[in-house]
């Protein structure tokens, strides 16, 4: 579904898996090239060590790139399925208060995805997310592997194994 950046921001803010973990989408760029997220520590997302639960941090990171790619590519006329295929998370520093991150997709990222989708029908690539505390210290590094499938991609006869 194609929606405006403002509407998507509010939908994500009140999407229960994000809302109840205190994950707040601060902004989504109007062209869907980036977004900013804050995660506030609360009784609902605090772990045994009194820091933000790692699952909360992953939940925040999990949705970002797929949502941006889906909106960007849908606006360009693609019918796509997009999701986070995997992630690698390095927890570097205990996160005792609000943590935040921003991500952005460059024109190169977008054109590369389009080219691969047009040639092969699917694109799989990892994208970074660096999460900071209020002091500007890096708390978490995440690499999100995003899977994008062009649902309208048709293989040529030779790619299908048909030989003339």
UniProtKB/TrEMBL annotation:
Highest taxon in the source lineage: Bacteria
SUPFAM superfamilies, per the entry: Thioesterase/thiol ester dehydrase-isomerase
Pfam families with a match to the protein in the record: DUF4442
Protein name: DUF4442 domain-containing protein
């Amino acid at each position: 579904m194609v929606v405006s950046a403002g509407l998507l921001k509010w939908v994500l803010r009140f999407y229960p898996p994000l809302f109840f973990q205190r994950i707040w989408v601060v902004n989504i760029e109007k062209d869907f090239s980036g977004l900013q997220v804050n995660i506030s520590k609360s009784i609902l997302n605090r772990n045994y060590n009194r820091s933000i639960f790692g699952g909360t941090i992953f939940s925040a990171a999990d949705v970002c790139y797929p949502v941006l790619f889906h909106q960007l590519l849908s606006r360009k006329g693609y019918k796509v399925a997009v999701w986070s295929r995997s992630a690698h998370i390095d927890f570097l520093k205990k996160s005792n208060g609000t943590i935040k991150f921003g991500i952005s997709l460059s024109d190169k990222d977008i054109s590369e995805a389009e080219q691969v989708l047009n040639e092969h029908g699917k694109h799989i690539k990892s994208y970074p997310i660096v999460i900071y505390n209020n002091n500007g210290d890096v708390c978490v590094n995440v690499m999100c592997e995003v899977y994008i499938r062009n649902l309208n991609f048709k293989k040529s006869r030779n790619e299908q194994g048909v030989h003339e």
